[in-house]
Design goal:
Structural class: mainly alpha
Number of strands: 0
Strand content: under 5%
Length: 111
């Protein structure tokens, strides 16, 4: 598959994630509906964290950003409830995620 096709699909996935978060009230995005399930904010943040971990830290050797949020999105340090409670507001998560996504797209285009 051509790299432009992959980048287009990646951009589409990013857009769907952001649309989901912006189409739901902020308080609903932050709510844990069951103790064993995280909030929508956490799942979004976890996806961004995994992108940072695997693409930036593991492949590029730059783990600075992944380490900054590791406690919020990794198992073992804090409970899921504690992680969700420590998340910033959804707008902050959206801005952070968008910056990471843009950096990923840029990195893919220049590689």
């Amino acid at each position: 598959m051509a790299s432009t096709t992959l980048l287009s699909q990646l951009s589409g996935l990013y857009g769907m994630q952001l649309h989901l978060l912006t189409s739901i009230p902020a308080e609903d995005c932050a709510k844990q509906y069951h103790p064993q399930l995280a909030s929508l904010n956490w799942y979004f943040g976890r996806g961004v964290y995994l992108e940072l971990h695997w693409l930036r830290a593991e492949l590029e050797g730059d783990d600075d950003l992944a380490l900054r949020v590791n406690r919020l999105f990794s198992t073992g340090q804090l409970s899921l409830q504690q992680q969700c409670a420590r998340l910033p507001p959804v707008n902050h998560l959206i801005n952070w995620g968008s910056e990471v996504h843009e950096a990923t797209r840029h990195s893919c285009c220049t590689a």
